[in-house]
Amino acid sequence: MTQRTPLWRTVLDDLLQRLESGEFDSRFPTDRELMETYGVSRHTVREAVRELQTSGKISRHPGRGSRVETTLYEQPLGTVYSLYESIEEAGMNQDSIVLALEMRHDQLAAAVLELPADADLFYLERIRLADGEPIAHDRTWLPGTITKSLLGIDFGHTALYSELKEHCHISPEGGRERIKPALPDPVHAGYLELAAGEPVLEIERRTTARGAPLEWRITSVRGDRYSFLAEWRASDTLVVPRLVAG
User: Fold this and answer.
1) Do residues 72 and 225 touch, judged by C-beta distance below 8 A?
2) CATH architecture of 7-68
3) Quick check: 65 and 28 in contact, CB under 8 A?
4) Beta strands at 133-143 and 174-182: parallel, antiparallel or unpaired
5) pLDDT tens, 98-145?
6) How many CB atoms lie within 10 A of CB 117?
7) Crossing angle, helix 42-54 and helix 31-38, to 10 degrees?
8) How far apart are CA 87 and CA 85, in angstroms?
9) Which CATH number fits domain 73-229: 3.30.505.50, 3.40.1410.10, 3.40.20.10, 3.40.50.300?
């Protein structure tokens, strides 16, 4: 006796084909619309949609419905990279909404940069856009003594590292990043058009140049549009995880 294919599976297979064709790139249907299209119950629709969620094809957002998930690009680890250049090289336009561009005092940032507490610091805060869609909220501190010439730069469509090299004759020579999941506060979630409770990947970057700290940067990126890639070989040295203060 031939086993009958579950109705939700039939709906799922058709939805997968429509997803592959790009039919839902701009908008994924509501449960009611799917019920009317396929002539099935809400339970059947939800079973099919649940499978799409589990496989990472779509995500559900309370009050905003479902959204097709598309990885924006993959960022290799282990090197100093420019978010601007990474997005542009992926074939998209990277623009920024500049929220702050100024000299300011910040005791914590000064300590990270190994400067006196009252040192002038260059501060740049941006919302980074990929083809007009918010992908990251970026806050950067640099020593003010070497970066005053950057205050007149329009950072709406350029890379900080390019401007540093051109106007300040300095570039990062090394550094480290720590990446961890985080829940943004309502203001920062709003910058990235995230619903309450949606997490981000928080990237803390510290770079050095000429034997001294150059940059402290905290970037919150949308985890649904951003991924990291680490490559390894069997001959690589084993790195043992270590505990760090939260």
Assistant:
1) yes
2) Orthogonal Bundle (1.10)
3) yes
4) unpaired
5) 999 999 999 999 999 999 999 999 999 999 988 888 889 999 999 999
6) 11
7) 120
8) 6
9) 3.40.1410.10
